[in-house]
Design a protein that fits this description.
Blueprint: E1 7-9, E2 15-17, E3 20-21, H1 22-29, E4 33-37, H2 38-56, E5 60-65, H3 72-80, E6 84-87, H4 90-98, E7 106-108, H5 115-123, E8 128-131, H6 134-147, E9 151-158, E10 180-181, H7 186-194, E11 200-206, H8 217-237, E12 243-245, H9 263-281, E13 287-290, H10 294-297, E14 301-313, E15 317-322, H11 331-335, E16 341-343, E17 353-358, E18 367-374, E19 382-386, E20 407-411, E21 414-419, H12 424-428
Parallel strand pairs: 4-20, 5-6, 5-13, 6-7, 7-8, 8-9, 9-10, 9-11, 11-12, 12-13, 15-17
Antiparallel strand pairs: 1-2, 2-3, 4-14, 14-15, 14-19, 16-19, 17-18, 20-21
The chain binds pyridoxal-5'-phosphate.
Length: about 425
C-alpha cells in the first residue's frame, strides 16, 4: 500500500512503523523526529549478507557505507549483523571506534584524506585504506614508515561508466574528483608504483559508479572492467589482487514510480560476470566486497513533522509548512530529490489536492516535496515524509540555528532513543 513495507495502519487509523503508532511516537518524542525501523535495517543487512554467501560461497564481505547514516547505534547494528564499515572521514571513523566496531573490517575512503586522518586510521589499525591518488599514496607510505606499520591498501578506480543518474551523484566517469582512471592507464600506473613502495601492501581495487541506480547494466559493465583490470595486472606485472570492491549505489523506492532491481538478483548477475571473467582469464576469484548505504537504511526511516501554516495562494499553489525542512533534509534543495509523504492520521485517505510541503528555513528553495497530491491537511496535523533513513540525519545542519531532531529506533514493537534531540545549549556549546 505504501512505498515502504515497514509501514502499516492500526485500529485508530494511524500510521505505524514497525507496528508502533507514529502519532504516539510524535507525542512522546516531539517533532520533527526521525524514526527508523531497526528490524527492517537488520533484514536489509541480511538480504545482502545472504546473497553474498549464496553467490560467492562466503568469500565476500558487505560493508555498510556509514555516510548514509552514522551514529553509535547503527555501527553496533552493522557489527552485530557481521558487516564491515565504509568510513570517509575522521568523524565517521571516530564514531566507529567509539562504537567498538572491529577495526579490521573498516575501510577508509575519501578523495582527500588528511595526514591526521590517515594517522588516526593507522594508529587504530583500520583494515584497509582505499587510496584515491598518488599524493595520498606517498603521504600514507610516509606515515606507515614512521609508525613502523605495513598498511593494506585498495585503490579507487574510475571505470569510466555512465550510471544514468543525476550529475551530482555520478562518480564513475573520467571527469570526477574521485579516484584514478582506468582507460588512460593511470590506474595501472599507480598500482604498479604502489607495489614497489615500502610499508604498502597492495590488496584490492575498488569502484563506486554512482548512487540511486536502478539499471543493472552499469553494475555489470563495472564488474567486467574491474575484473579485467585484475587479470591485466596479473598478466602484465605479476601483481595479485585479492579483493574486488564493487561499491554501493543500489536504488531504492522513494516514490511509487521508482522500481529498484531486487538486490539478490543484482548480486547474482554481477557474480556471474566476475566468475566468467576470472575463468576466461585464469585468475583466482577475488574476495568480493560491496558497500550499500542508502539501500540499507533509507527504506527503514521516516521523518515526522507537525503542520503549521497552510497558505493557499489562489490559482498558484498551496504551501503546507512544517516544523522542519532543509536543515533536517537538504536533499530537495541539493538534488531536487523526490519523496512521498502521508498524513499520520488516516494515511490512506483520498489524495484530493496538489500541495507543496515546505520547510521553515529562510530560503525559498526550502521545500521537502513540490506538488504532491495530498489529503486535506490542517495546522496541528502530523505528516510523515517517507524513506528518509539515508542522507537525511547525516546531511542535516544547524542552518537558521535549528537544533537537529532526535533519532528513534523501533525494534520488536518498542521504541528507543538512539540520538538525542539537540538542545539550545548544544547550539552554542562551541561559541566563545
Ligand atoms: C556513497 C558511497 C557508497 C554508498 O552509496 P549508496 O548509494 O548509499 O549505496 C559506497 N561506497 C562509496 C565509496 C561511496 O562513496
Amino acid at each position: 500500500m505504501f512505498v515502504m513495507d515497514c509501514l502499516g495502519v492500526n485500529e485508530k487509523n494511524n500510521l505505524t512503523i514497525g507496528g508502533v503508532d507514529v502519532a504516539e511516537l510524535a507525542q512522546e518524542y516531539q517533532t520533527p523526529l526521525y524514526v527508523m525501523d531497526e528490524d527492517k535495517i537488520r533484514e536489509n543487512c541480511r538480504c545482502y549478507t545472504g546473497a553474498m554467501k549464496r553467490y560467492y560461497d562466503g568469500n565476500g564481505l558487505v560493508l555498510y557505507a556509514s555516510k548514509a547514516f552514522s551514529c553509535l547505534h547503527i555501527c553496533r547494528i552493522a557489527a552485530e549483523e557481521g558487516l564491515g564499515l565504509d568510513v570517509v572521514s575522521d568523524g565517521e571513523l571516530y564514531t566507529a571506534i567509539k562504537a567498538g566496531f572491529p577495526m579490521d573490517k573498516v575501510y577508509f575512503h575519501g578523495n582527500n584524506k588528511t595526514e591526521d586522518e590517515l594517522t588516526l586510521a593507522l594508529e587504530n589499525n583500520v583494515g584497509r585504506i582505499v587510496v584515491d591518488n598518488k599524493f595520498e599514496l606517498s603521504l600514507l607510505s610516509g606515515i606507515a614508515g614512521r609508525l613502523g606499520k605495513e598498511v593494506a591498501v585498495s585503490f579507487r578506480i574510475k571505470p569510466g561508466i555512465d550510471a544514468h543518474t543525476h550529475d551530482f551523484i555520478m562518480t564513475g566517469q573520467i571527469d570526477s574528483k574521485f579516484g584514478v582512471a582506468l582507460e588512460t592507464g593511470e590506474a595501472e600506473e599507480i598500482i604498479v608504483y604502489a607495489s614497489q613502495l615500502p610499508n604498502i601492501n597492495v590488496v584490492g581495487v575498488h569502484c563506486h559508479i554512482g548512487s540511486q541506480i536502478f539499471d543493472i547494466d552499469p553494475f555489470l559493465l563495472a564488474a567486467d572492467k574491474m575484473t579485467s583490470l585484475i587479470a591485466d595486472l596479473k598478466d602484465r606485472h605479476g601483481i595479485v589482487i585479492s579483493e574486488l570492491n564493487l561499491g554501493g549505489g543500489y536504488g531504492i523506492k522513494y516514490t511509487s514510480s521508482d522500481d529498484p532491481v531486487p538486490y539478490d538478483a543484482y548480486i547474482k548477475s554481477v557474480s556471474e560476470v566476475v566468475k566468467k571473467v576470472c575463468a576466461d582469464r585464469g585468475v583466482t576469484l577475488p574476495k568480493i566486497l560491496m558497500e550499500p548505504g542508502r539501500s540499507i537504511v533509507a527504506p527503514a526511516g521516516i521523518t515526522v513533522y507537525s503542520v503549521g501554516a497552510v497558505k493557499e495562494i489562489p490559482d498558484v499553489r498551496t504551501y503546507v509548512s512544517v516544523d522542519g525542512g532543509m536543515a533536517d533534509n537538504p536533499r530537495y534543495i541539493m538534488y531536487e530529490s523526490k519523496y512521498d509523504a502521508l498524513p499520520v492520521h488516516d494515511p490512506a485517505a483520498k489524495r484530493e489536492k496538489i500541495v507543496t510541503i515546505a520547510g521553515k528555513c529562510c530560503e525559498s528553495g526550502d521545500i521537502l516535496i513540490k506538488d504532491i497530491a495530498f489529503p486535506k491537511i490542517d495546522a496541528g496535523d502530523l505528516i510523515a515524509v517517507l524513506a528518509t533513513g539515508a542522507y537525511n540525519y547525516s546531511m542535516s545542519s544547524n542552518y537558521n540555528r535549528i537544533p537537529k531532531p532526535p533519532v528513534v529506533m523501533i525494534s520488536g514493537g518498542k521504541s528507543k532513543l538512539v540520538v538525542k534531540r539537540e538542545s539550545y545549549d548544544d547550539l552554542i556549546k562551541n561559541d566563545i
